[in-house]
Amino acid sequence: MTYAKITLIGNLGADPELAFDSQNRPRLSMRVAVSERARTAGGEDKTTWYRVTIFGRAGADAGKSRPEKLAEFLRKGHEVFVTGRLEARTYEAKDGTTQVSLDIVADEFELLKYRPRESEGGAPAREQAPRPAAAAADGGSQAAPSDLDDLPF
Questions:
Q1: 3-class SS at 79?
Q2: Residues 55, 68 contacting (CB under 8 angstroms)
Q3: Could you tell me which residues are beta bridge partners of residue 88?
Q4: pTM for this one?
Q5: Is residue 98 a part of any domain in this protein?
Q6: Per-residue pLDDT tens digits for 19-77
Q7: Residue 150 counted as domain residue
Q8: Cβ pair 47, 67 in contact under 8 A
Q9: Do 28 and 16 contact (CB within 8 A), yes or no?
Q10: Residue 54's closest CA among 12, 89, 1, 100?
């Protein structure tokens, strides 16, 4: 078996969308923007959009599944780290042109910067310190190695 794996660090372009399939399995979909330092001819950052999906299991441990928990917490603008399987697909846009969609089925997902909304009682987003939350997309947890600062590169 072969597949393409991709890693992204980007920002959520909108609040994630939670849906359930016919067998009540949760699916969390989100759009992630990855901007490069290179500028376009118009002087703007070059941005590539990815659709990221995290799947869950129906009735996960008699509580909320990972996608359901994330849907309550994640908001537009949050910075995230995603690793997963890359799938490119084509579709016909509203204007009749053929477009390419870069879809990722997440294996791992980590929130890099938490920005509560002012309506949640937090300070404005730009004043908040990062609050990391790491976990495998399937609901397991994964801790980051603490010795990364000792690497020679």
A1: strand
A2: no
A3: 102
A4: 0.68
A5: yes
A6: 999 988 999 999 999 988 776 677 777 899 999 999 998 765 567 888 999 999 899 99
A7: no
A8: no
A9: yes
A10: 12
